[in-house]
Design a protein that fits this description.
homodimer, 4-stranded parallel β-sheet, 8 helices, globular
Chain lengths: ~200, ~200
């Protein structure tokens, strides 16, 4: 965009780096912001600053939080002997929306991806081991994604934690509720068959 | 999201107000930014500030620019007796990408939309009239969108400028290049028929 001011071009380039936002979309966002009152862009700038200044990661589970520990780790009514291991904060939030899980979490902040240069040293693994031993954790639920990288990470974790006495479990794979079998991929159907349970 | 820090929630809410970004997408963006080095969020904050501080609108055509006039209006090699009227800055950029247009522009910064409370007073109309008379403009190309609001705006402009001696034209409507006729809507096909040109 040779005819637009540098400030516009710079913000477009920065926003286009965000996942799911291409250059065209980024330009659309910037021009939208320019069409709004100045206070909107100021609020956004302020909010990005606030994000850096006020957001910390829980010293125990690495969830985003305000202080040293997150609300879930501080919550006395959560079961403290089970830890659900997830890749990202969003995954934790997805489990929280179920209202079905009452244990604690551990956010890895990533998944093993050798091609992208993400090895075990980039994930929050030592603190998981520390928590298991310190808090006498009984069960660790491996809730990484069910794609190749997530599966590989779950396998790696299983080996990594093999020396502990903790029970390791993996979330179930199968046909999602409401899924039309016709559109389910063969690998998922195979898993659904393998994991079948006896009824009644 | 009751378990996330206020700073996260606030930025998610603000980003979700942007066009094409829902709450889920906004959350994804914020967590991505949190996973990047702090400098990234700082750069974004700085860029939003820069946007307000450094971006102006051209006093003539209302295009975004650094100074009082934009690069196109300042460019001595552009034809100064033809003005292409567009709704938004992005539309101007689309015409610039053609490398086919050598005249000037006029950005309305909106389109007539009575339902949304956008009347003629919200568009840059008086300055268009001023330019036509001051610069002895010969032709005004009405290049608002070809949707209902854009068409209505073009009709309004035609009436608004009827008292001037300027030649008014409207961009052609018809089948886009590479368009498969099977998938073209009936209204467009009707226009393509009405606007047919004799060959050879």
């Amino acid at each position: 965009m040779p005819v637009v001011p540098t400030a516009v071009e710079k913000l477009v380039t920065q926003l286009a780096r965000l996942p799911g936002i291409g250059e065209r979309m980024a330009a659309r966002l910037v021009f939208h912001i320019l069409s709004e009152p100045e206070t909107y862009a100021r609020q956004l700038a302020r909010s990005f600053e606030d994000l850096i200044e006020h957001v910390r990661f829980c010293s125990d589970c690495h969830m985003v939080c305000d202080g040293e520990f997150c609300g879930i780790c501080r919550n006395g009514s959560r079961e403290r002997d089970v830890i659900c291991v997830v890749e990202r904060v969003q995954d934790l939030l997805a489990f929280e929306r179920t209202n079905a899980y009452r244990g604690l979490y551990h956010v890895l902040h990533g998944v093993l991806a050798p091609i992208k240069g993400v090895g075990p040293d980039k994930l929050h693994l030592p603190s998981l081991l520390t928590r298991i031993e310190r808090d006498e954790v009984q069960e660790v639920i491996l809730a990484t994604s069910t794609d190749v990288e997530g599966e590989a990470t779950a396998l790696y974790l299983a080996r990594y934690l093999a020396s502990t006495s903790v029970t390791l479990s993996r979330i179930a794979t199968g046909v999602p509720l409401g899924g039309e079998l016709e559109y389910i991929d063969p690998n998922t159907l195979t898993r659904a068959l393998d994991g079948r349970t006896v009824m009644g």
